[in-house]
Amino acid sequence: IDRLPDGVDYHPGWLDAAAQTALLEDIRAVVAQAPLFTPRMPRTGKPMHVRMSNCGALGWVTDKEGGYRYQTTHPETGRPWPPMPEMLRELWNRLSGCKAPAQACLINFYEADAKMGLHQDRDEKTFSAPVLSVSLGDDCLFRIGGLTRGGPTQSLRLASGDVIQLGGESRLRYHGVDRIYPGTSMLMKKEGRINLTLRRVDPV
Ligand code: MD3
Ligand code: FE
């Protein structure tokens, strides 16, 4: 209904069913090498609602002691992150407008009852490059706000195969996932949602 803010590029249904299935297989292979871990909030150690993994040169991790950061290795196995699947590298090259390759792909896995509170993404060393998100599996209710907490927000139902990119003046907007709509996708045998976010961490 509302127009999306400048800097938000929404591509509903960008990936067809075959592409979603192929990408899901790629992500399963990544997670077999780099198992999902439970991220914990800095200082409190409170677990987040999602489980995570990463692929690419860098991965986003967080724990009680070390806080939010990017690192080259899995926090539990100590091994380097698996390479980013070709489909994701190509998606970044096609849509991001960034000459440099994506460095990090964060994989968020949402169970049927999981959510993600409103937050800003500001752990990268550059905000010039966009963040590109790919949704797989069940629909979710995604919320996007302004550059400060509070103030008006807009909600969007994201579905499997949707791609949404946040750049420019929207790169630092508050955003979160209010809920999953379990059983709304046939992509996976189980309920749940996977979100992939492709990013640059270092300035180009
Ligand atoms: C808006 N993930 O991993 S992706 C995250 O669906 C994250 O799992 C959500 O927020 C998810 O940090 C949302 C869409 C997204 C990603 C980055 C943004 C929206 C954004 C950066 C700025 C504004
Ligand atoms: Fe985020």
From TrEMBL:
InterPro entries (UniProt xref): Alkb, AlkB-like, AlkB-like_sf, Oxoglu/Fe-dep_dioxygenase_dom
Binding-site residues for 2-oxoglutarate, renumbered to this chain: 108-110, 193-199
Binding-site list for substrate: 60, 68-70, 123, 149
Record-level GO cellular component terms: cytoplasm
Cofactor: binding details: Binds 1 Fe(2+) ion per subunit.
Alphabetic keyword roster: Dioxygenase, Iron, Metal-binding, Oxidoreductase
GO BP, sorted A to Z: oxidative RNA demethylation
Molecular function GO terms recorded: broad specificity oxidative DNA demethylase activity; ferrous iron binding; oxidative RNA demethylase activity
Residues annotated as binding Fe cation: 119, 121, 175
Record-linked SUPFAM superfamilies: Clavaminate synthase-like
Cofactor(s) needed: Fe(2+)
Domain spans labelled Fe2OG dioxygenase: 101-202
Database matches in PANTHER family: ALKYLATED DNA REPAIR PROTEIN ALKB-RELATED, NUCLEIC ACID DIOXYGENASE ALKBH1
Identification of the protein by name: Alpha-ketoglutarate-dependent dioxygenase AlkB
